[in-house]
Amino acid sequence: MITEKRLEEALKFLAETDEQQAKGSANVKYLDRLLKRKKALFITGDKDNKSISAKEQAFYASDTYKTAIDELFEAEVSSSTLDNKRDKEALVIDLFRTLEASRRKNNI
Q1: Are 43 and 59 in contact (CB under 8 A)?
Q2: Per-residue pLDDT of the chain in tens (108 residues, 90 and over written 9)
Q3: Residue 61 CB neighbours (<10 A)
């Protein structure tokens, strides 16, 4: 049975993580855009290769790309983890509502 205390914890968690969730989601989008900018800067700064395709392949093989995708990965994991925790707390609230409605109807 989900207690009122557990319900309060779920509501508190959701209320306290609104901004954190927004920042996490925005960070993922920012790092994705930053990756594109880094690629553009790398390609325009590459004077060794003639073709865009060769410049692009050099970028994907570079440490700059590896670092950028690692940062993006960590941000996505962090953001998704928080999203999952928030979804779980919302589920607790929904279950509490369902149980309370059933209790009021004397079904439980």
Answers
A1: yes
A2: 789 999 999 999 999 999 999 999 999 999 999 999 999 999 999 898 889 999 999 999 999 999 999 999 999 999 999 999 999 999 999 999 999 988 888 765
A3: 10
